[in-house]
Amino acid sequence: MIKNKMWLALFLVVILLLQGCSQEEKTISETGFVIGTIVTIQLKGTDDEAIMEGCFDILSEVDSWMSLNIESSLINALNDHAGQGPMEVSEEAFYVIKKALEYGYISGGLFDISMEPVIDLWGIGTEEAKIPSDNDLNAALALVGYDKIILDEGSLSVDLPEGMSIDLGGIGKGYAADLINEYLKANKVTGGIINLGGNIVIMGAKEDNAPYRVGVQNPFETRNDYFGVVEVIDKTVVTSGIYERNFEEDGILYHHILNPEDGYPMNNGVAGVTVITTSSIDADALSTVLFLSGIQDGLAIAESMEDVECIFVDEDKNVYLSQGAKDIFSLSDSDFTIVE
Fold first, then answer.
1. Is residue 79 a contact partner of residue 160, using CB atoms and an 8 Å limit?
2. Burial class (CB in 10 A: 0-12, 13-18, 19+), 211
3. Helices and strands of the chain, counted as H and E runs
4. Residue 106 burial (10 A CB sphere; 0-12, 13-18, 19+)
5. 34: exposed, middle or buried (C-beta count within 10 Å: 0-12, 13-18, 19+)?
6. What is the Cα gyration radius of the chain?
7. Using CA atoms, how far apart are residues 246 and 240, in angstroms rounded to an integer?
8. Average pLDDT taken over every residue of the chain
9. Is residue 24 very low, low, confident or very high in pLDDT (cuts 50, 70, 90)?
């Protein structure tokens, strides 16, 4: 699957999650690179290799239709069809696109899957990352507008305006995590950890019905460095922040979470936000929505939604918690300060 050094780094991170597991209980673990990220899945109460293989088959199937890096993917076909009228898509693609548009409306357009031309210009996360020219950026922004996408539930069709292209990267890992969770439950697996590159799903509780302790990503360090811990049972924990996919030029850090209003990385003082809820597709989208909304508006959005908690970190390492998060979060790094 992956090289030993990479596996060792992942193993050290998941120790926190696995503390308290019985040595006698059957377990199985697998790590690989799929859907554009490092994936680690650990299952309790089973050592069935076929079940684990099924998890990775699900990820490969999602990647086959959702990835912009696979030329034959459905999303690439849909983007190529833009301006030519409605195109029928699969039921799962329609569901993810519809869910993404719902968060577009919830966020007032801050979450926008039609930002792909702007994302492509910046190239953040690739060797070609650069600051685009104003002319190129304005031309790309003219193609953006989630509210111009027309869905027809009866025919499962999607109609994109001419020149538009969409990217489901801001919601896709959450969808895949939910699919695996449902698949495992259908196969009578009730305990485990699904980690899709930081999109974490906790299945069940520890043997004594105690919660799992999940590290909350430090947005100023590389992935798997945490500044605090949340205690959860049957929850998903998803973080968006400046730590992942960025580049620096002339002393300025440019991260990958772009503001649809001007096309630049959002500069609102937020360094990272973690969402804790029950649905990973919702947590995936919400982590971006809350980041782009800013601390006060983001906290208000989270408080208005049922069973959604969040943890904000600003650029000065101040930590802001939703009401429910105060009961499950504990700080572990003294460089950070909780703001009451």
1. yes
2. middle
3. 9, 17
4. middle
5. buried
6. 20
7. 12
8. 92
9. low
Sign of CA dihedral 115, 120, 121, 122: positive
Alpha-carbon gap, residue 339 to 324, rounded angstroms: 15
Residue 71, token pair as written in the block: 């030329």
How does 188-209 read in b/e, with b if 16+ C-beta sit within 10 Å? ebebbbbbbbbbbbbbbbbeee
Threshold 0.85, pTM exceeds: yes
Smallest Cα–Cα separation from 111: which of 143, 80, 133, 144?
144
User: Which CA distances in Å does 186 have to 132, 206, 209?
Assistant: 47, 20, 21
Gap between the terminal Cα atoms of the chain:
45
Strand ranges across the sheet with 157-159: 87-88, 157-159, 150-152
Place of tokens 């554009």: 36
Provide mean pLDDT across the span 3-17.
38
Mean pLDDT (whole number) for 249-253: 90
Query: Do residues 229 and 212 lie in contact, with contact meaning Cβ atoms separated by under 8 Å?
Result: no
**Are residues 25 and 49 in contact, defined by beta-carbon separation less than 8 angstroms?**
no
Residues 6+ apart with CB under 8 A from 26: 44, 45, 46, 47
Kindly give the pairing relationship between strand 337-338 and strand 318-321. Answer: parallel
CA distance to 7, 37, 147, per residue, from 296 (Å): 38, 31, 25
Coil/strand/helix, residue 78: helix
What's the one-letter identity of residue 124? I
Beta strands 191-196 and 199-203: pairing type?
A: antiparallel
- Per-residue tokens: 305: 């939604």
